[in-house]
């Protein structure tokens, strides 16, 4: 029998409307008691002045395995997750080969079991090979444990294929997650379109490329009576389309990534490929609209879009470097900087967006501290000043624009299924 007592923490569990100082007792990987618990003879973690919250969930990461293990593996990515306070991640299927069948989904779960760090949930591809033409075998992937479907890296260009995908996934109560981008409009763009792109001589991606597909998909989801989740939204126009859709009762949810809440296209002036992402960094006006969307509930989740790349690739010139950056190791501090330090939202809302909201969208049995729930718990120091050092990241890659940033909050303990995976605070062993 393994017992662990977390004492005197500030417990925040939005799913149960809990916001109080108290103790959490864990036994055999399950939360057994919440409130006032006697510590005699037990392993005790003193959580005074710390937040005790359900294990954080990142519903959008790239773990690169199978195929690009020199960039990241399921083991290294899940180590980065627990270092950052995440107990669960959902990994995208744009691997080599694509995660578009039951055997590959099964491979992800076996690797995650072997790594034994964070819970890893596989997202299957919507179409075979992410080619956008023929639906993948979603039913078989559901049987293998796929929690959702996405062709991330690409949006599904054909409205007809997307409509079928929404209907088919809906039969299994699984959500379609879309990387909204119209390829014909985006062309070979590599940053936000507009004046700055012209000055820098770089091809741009117009906000309309995202907004057009988002608007289309909202209509398709309505037609299919299916759930739609919009990945990494970036523009003020997208926030407005979502706000209207939700007002009209659409079953649409959305996420935003830390870089789109903190960085603007101005970063591209340096021609540093760590400012090259897809969808691209936009403007301060878009950041304000995204923060407003977070505040009023238009945006449901925070997701890192952790996208590892080799140093040699990210050192190519801006136009030719791959899209994407990593942030799993430091994402929590980034969200706090973007949303709490700017007084956009409070801690319970932040935790809701990182726990119960993604859990409900993915239909996974996580995201709460309910008695009887699996003991996935994150302890956060909300006043921990630290400097980001990418060389200390557990991720295998280093493509990160936040190196050297000062952040004001950090996960200090990550507990997955009752097992302590990260421990930066004192811990007293019971007798
Ligand atoms: Zn994407
Ligand atoms: Zn992605």
Please characterize this protein's 3D structure.
The protein is α/β, with parallel strands linked by helices and 431 residues long. The protein has 2 domains: 3-51 and 375-428, Urease, subunit C, domain 1, CATH 2.30.40.10; 55-362, Alpha-Beta Barrel (TIM Barrel). 30% of the residues lie in helices and 23% in strands. It has helices spanning 74-83, 102-115, 138-144, 159-171, 183-186, 195-200, 207-224, 236-247, 258-262, 284-295, 311-314, 331-340, 347-354, 356-362; strands at 3-13, 18-27, 30-35, 43-46, 51-54, 56-61, 86-91, 119-124, 148-150, 175-178, 191-192, 204-205, 228-230, 252-256, 301-302, 377-381, 386-387, 406-407, 410-416, 419-423, 427-428. The strands form 4 sheets. Strands 1, 2, 3, 4, 5, 16, 19, 20 and 21 form a 9-stranded mixed beta sheet that branches. α2 runs parallel beside α3 (138-144), α7 packs parallel to α8 (236-247) and α8 (236-247) runs parallel beside α10. The protein is globular. One zinc ion (ZN) is lined by residues 60, 62, 92, 152, 305, 307. The site of one zinc ion has 5 residues, from loops.
